[in-house]
Amino acid sequence: MSEWLVLSIAMASACAVVLIIVVLNNRRVGDDDDPSQTPDVIEYMTMMIGVVYAIVLGLAIAGVWEGRSAAQESVRIEAQALHEVKARASVYPAEVRDRIRADVDAYVSHVVNDEWKVMSERNTLTERGTELLDQVRADVTDYEPKTDHEGQAYQPLVDQVAAADDARSSRKQNAGATMPGVVWFGLIIGALVTVGLIFTLQIRRTFRELLLAGLFSALIAFLLFLIWDFDAPFGRGISATADPFIDMFPGITR
Q1: Membrane-spanning residues where (predicted)?
Q2: Most-buried pick from 86, 113, 225, 237 (CB within 10 A)?
Q3: Coil, strand or helix: which one is 60?
Q4: Cα–Cα distance measured from residue 227 to residue 68, given in angstroms and rounded to the nearest whole number
Q5: What DSSP letter does each residue of 176-210 carry, written as one string?
Q6: Maximum distance among all alpha carbons in the chain?
Q7: In the prediction, which pLDDT does 119 show?
Q8: Which helix (H) or strand (E) holds 237?
């Protein structure tokens, strides 16, 4: 069963149960009932809906911010691992060392200048980037150490390439939007309900009330925009950047 169908059934059932209970309860009320003696439920419901929606907004913002931070961290780990590969390759013969470093630079240059744009626009990585990283892995794993010093550096180099590959996979997973559609549905419907409840409180045309209503609506719109902007860690304004690559590989230019 589709999640949207389940959601629709659950919402319709909840509304139906509440309405049925209210109708049945009103039928039991006598003619001498005085509603003025009971507290007005409208203000209480408005307050509770506002509180619940604020909690949902806070959780959504925290979730997308955590996703953006994780995406930026994966970039840092990948850049650091590749930097370690270049540094640790110094114990190898000049021919092997230069080949490893050249292939690392080629991969980083491709990520910064080509793959980053593709990742931002299409939410995916490039085949060329995978090939270049595979070439770095081949450079490291295919060499047979000739001395004990080279042998001691071999496994750490392999581990750093594996760490870079794992970070690249994390970067791929974080490339697209992370917020499910059903959550967006709840956020938008909640915003409409919360703003709509303003009109149940008999708002007037005084400057103060209109100003507060406008600011409240603008605040909710801003928070929804913030969630949308953070939802794609690499694709929108406040996104993760390639700065760790540029900082650790000064020779690479954009």
Answers
A1: 6-24, 44-65, 182-203, 210-228
A2: 86
A3: helix
A4: 11
A5: S--S-HHHHHHHHHHHHHHHHGGGGG---S-HHHH
A6: 101
A7: 86
A8: none
